[in-house]
Amino acid sequence: MSSTSRSCANPVAHRRRAYGLACAVFAALGACNNENHYVAPPPPKVTVALPTQQDVIPYLEATGSLAAVNSANLVARVGGFLQEIKYTDGARVKAGDVLFVIEPAPYENALAQAKAAESGADATVTQAQADYARQVDLQGKQFASKSTLDQSLATRDSALAKQRQAQADTKQAEINLGYTQVKVPFDGIVTAHQVSIGELVGMPGTPSLLATIVQLDPIYVNFNIGEQDVLNLRAGIRRRALTEAELRQFPVEVNLGNETDYSHKGTLDYAYPGVGTSTGTLAVRGVMKNEDHALLPGYFARVRVPLSAAQSALLVPDTALGSDQLGQHLLLVGGDGIVEQRGVRTGRLVGDLRVVLEGLKPDERVVVSGLSRAIPGQKVDAQLQAAASK
To answer: Residue 378 CB: number of other CB atoms within 10 A?
Structure first.
């Protein structure tokens, strides 16, 4: 008898096998004598920290550029052949040092001629003075006519005028001779010379640039500050009741692009007497010592000016801040574990921490790690870490 015939002959066994197969299928699907429950995933974990509280000096910060206090082009003021170059390119020089010598012989001769002419004028004046004195005496004794006296007076006055002209010519000849030595007007560094020995320089209509000298110590830093910063700065000045002399000592600190310590110190030197209507900024200048010539004209620099003494402030890691079209914000976690996004106003950077001026309280928990998992309005598992420090 076939297996099919045996199954048909035993319907009870057939039903048992069918029931067992069904139970096996439902057991595999987890539905045999069990209910299917949805278990929600746990809230994501984030790290939160309380803001750091410490004393911070409020600074006005700006970007500026360095400029030389003095910079001058040295040109030939008299014509002639360049006879000597008396410095090394790029050398530090002192005021009064001779850098170039233009052939002096023609000007020495001109001075000698002027002095000779002056001596002749002096002799003519002496003779004219004596003649005039005689005519005055004779006129008093009625031995000379009035016209003769007048002629003698005119001769004397003409001689005096020629004497003054001769003296002026001598002075000009001395000045021209002095111009044959091109001297340093102030301490500084001289650029490479632009002319060579034997070259004709200083001819009329063709000014000859010989070199340029730049003063590096002290040095200026120029920067612009916005109108609100101007108000804050002036408020700080009023609080400290600074006089005009004390304002000149108001500190300015400078930091180059590869520095972080604002080690270059100076003072305010000048402020334009008005805010530009087109830019809404105020042009300000500071001055500082630069003995080692670490600062060079043309450098861009970060500038900060302290507005007051140190004040207590709240700080958070700079990486905890986000930004959008409304400005900067922080993610906070409340006591119920719900994330809140809150806009804040920030100040300067202190190490890795950013000063929060508005929008944060000392006891609020700030998300400092896991920011991508902290979604505003949703619950998180907040793990509190120690307060961040500078």
So the answer is: 12
